[in-house]
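Hello,

Our lab assistant flagged a job as stuck in the queue for most of the afternoon. It eventually completed. Since we weren't sure the result was trustworthy after the delay, we are filing this so someone can double-check. Below is the sequence as submitted and the structure that was eventually returned. Let us know if re-running is recommended.
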Amino acid sequence: MNIAMVCRLIWKDWYLNKAGILASLIGGVATLALVAAMHASQVALIMGMIVLVTILIGMGAMVMISAASERRQMTLPFVMSLPISYWEYTISKIAGGFLIFFALWVPLVAAIVATILLTPGIPHGLIPFVLIMAVEILMTTCLITVVSVTTESHGWTVAVAQLGAIGLNGIGWSIVRLPQIGGWMRSPTVRWSGTATALLLAELALIVLMLAVTFVVQARKKDFL
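-- returned structure --
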């Protein structure tokens, strides 16, 4: 594998999106600071979660929409003229997209958990739900990545990003209705359950499955131009 070329393509995506990453981090930290300052107000919590989900989904979608536009912008023919195979190109897109997303996702998720633990009045029982939904957002971003890389379609990528954002609401509502999740959210201590573990494992399994499907589809392509 041409590791040097793969790393250069990843760096290209990082360079093009670094301003968005910084702005998203600042917006996320500012949102959490506001939530903490409002002393566990229920309205502040709800609005804060909505803003953070929007930031995370929006950044992930922005990165992959940019990747999906390479064919339309005639960047893809140039990239494929480099000493790089379809396999290496796929790796660069997926690895680059996830590295950019993780640069935002990891600190924001850690900051959310820290805010819950350190802010008086916020029940620690929220943490399992927050972690499940954080991985759900990661799974949605993975789906957007799969569609972007395999279809190379700006329209399909935008549509899936919008459907994914809407679907998160329904999934979150369904998870809250589970007795071992929603019933323990107001607990003053973290109460981890078998249901939470099963949900996380299912999400991670789906992520692995989607990535495997991406490489299978890319391997069958005959024309990248």
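-- support follow-up --
The delay was a queue issue, not a problem with the job. The result is valid. The CA atoms of residues 25 and 163 lie 24 Å apart. The chain has eight helices and no strands.
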